[in-house]
Amino acid sequence: MKSPYQHIFALQRNRRSALVPILIAVSMTASGWISQGSVFKFLNSPPIHNGLSGLLFRLTALSIAVLSITVYSRLMRSRDREVLSIHPIDPQSFLRALMMDTIHRSIWLPIGLIGFLTPLFFVSSSYFYISVVLILSSCLGGIGIAFAVTLGAVWVSTAPVAQPILDALRGPNPRVQAAFIYAPGFTLLMMGLLLGLSVEGGLLVIQRHLFYGAFLLLPGAIGLLGCGLALKLAPGQLVRATAILHEIDAHWVSVDSEGQGHEQHVYLDWMAKHSPERLRTLRQGWRMRRSLAIGPWICGALGALSAWSSNGEASVMFVNLGVAIGALLSGSCRDGDPLWLDYAIGVNRTKVLRARFEVGILYSAGAIIPVALVGLIGSGIPHMALLLCLAFAFCSASLSTFLGAKTKGPILPSYGIGVIVLWSILQGVS
User: Fold this and answer.
1) Is the distance from CB of 275 to CB of 343 less than 8 angstroms?
2) What is the C-alpha separation between 325 and 179, in angstroms, rounded?
3) Nearest 5°: CA angle at 400, between 398 and 403?
4) What beta strand segments (E) does 173-255 contain?
5) Which of 116, 145, 214, 242 is positioned for an S-S bond with 226, CB 3.0–4.6 A?
6) How far apart are CA 318 and CA 300, in angstroms?
7) Are the beta carbons of 268 and 362 closer than 8 angstroms?
8) Which of 97-111, 218-232, 290-304, 307-321 has the lowest mean pLDDT?
């Protein structure tokens, strides 16, 4: 008998347009060909595997970051939890259906990455097929490990043995929230170690060391084990997470009611002293989209480390990724609001849109500043590349603002396509 949860998820998929994932995958394929001269320039300078290993590691690590955040959002902060929290459920059956639905919804990512690597096929089919296996294995592993880590974070959040560690890491957040904050990062750390082994294993297979081919399947195998562990954890942790999330939300409500959520506690509030529209956007971003403020700084730090080690290509990639994350705020801060809301509450729509664009630029700056500072004290990326990153920030924030003003639903699919196209154009210019 088909699970009722699987039936519901199937209905949701049928009501959702399949065109957007297809467009994203096609855009990623096109971007691979457009940026062939810069991204795949190692194809013209053998040995190919030296450049390919770095490209595969960065692409798969990026996909794991996307999947870990997706799993966390769907498992902990989705609308399904709001509905199911007041009804009795079968945790394992629901989680099994959610896993399958997450795989369905995320299938565009490995397909797009494979399409991005199609120029490799016409140089060496063996390199291409090994890359395909690695991408599929890493995406499956990322989903499985993300589910296990996220549900494990529910146990860790209240485990007495973990309290000293959580107190050291939580900052101004409640202790139980610290476990959830670092769950996607822990997933990325675990998968990063596995990806390093898998990439090297794939290169050894090309060199006729077939025994190391098992390393290519290692992320996927660990991911399947992660799915099994998550199903074991589901009866005790899935429903319990709702109470912990309510505790976290109640904490922040009490903080706001005591005046601790005043504007001086908002990220970049000093940039909005004379602009209430900008302050409103900053508050929305910091309270509802905090990952869009933190993400650019993480990417900027990774970009600075890459620039310091004279790996300019990796540095530019991390900077542009952080810029795209930060600029997403310009349009996503109105997700869920009807298009007529700004008119109904009597605000100046032009000023609101300008403020959203400006805050998107400010959030994006977190990815650019660390790399620029490295350039002042050491060997950073070329000035032209830095200028192109700035141009990418302005274009991404403009696109995000426009989509936020004109789109009824979430802007992420359309924004993702647009950012890929912009990135490909800038790669061609550079």
Assistant:
1) no
2) 23
3) 105
4) none
5) 145
6) 7
7) yes
8) 307-321
| Encoded tokens for 233 | 């954890």
Count Cβ atoms below 10 Å from residue 266 Cβ, excluding itself. 18
Q: What is the tens place of the pLDDT at every residue in 240-293?
A: 777 777 777 776 666 555 554 444 466 777 776 777 778 878 877 776 777 788
Closest CA to 343 of 333, 352, 330: 352
Structure confidence at residue 26 as a pLDDT band (50, 70, 90):
confident
Contact 63, 138 (CB under 8 A): yes
Tokens at 127, concatenated: 């390199």
Q: Which residue has the tokens 């993480």?
A: 298
Long-range contacts of 409-414 (CB under 8 A, 24+ apart): 409/335, 410/332, 410/335, 411/328, 411/331, 411/332, 411/335, 412/328, 412/332, 413/20, 413/21, 413/23, 413/24, 414/20
Prior bond of 47 cis (ω within 30°) = yes
Nearest to 427 by CA among 320, 281, 282: 320
Q: With H, G, I as helix, E, B as strand and everything else as coil, classify residue 416.
A: helix
Query: How many CB atoms neighbour CB 377 within 10 A?
Result: 8
Query: For residue 49, what pLDDT is reported?
Result: 65
pTM of the model: 0.69
- Those residues whose C-beta lies under 8 Å from the C-beta of residue 145, and which sit 6 or more positions away, are 68, 187, 190, 191, 222, 223, 226
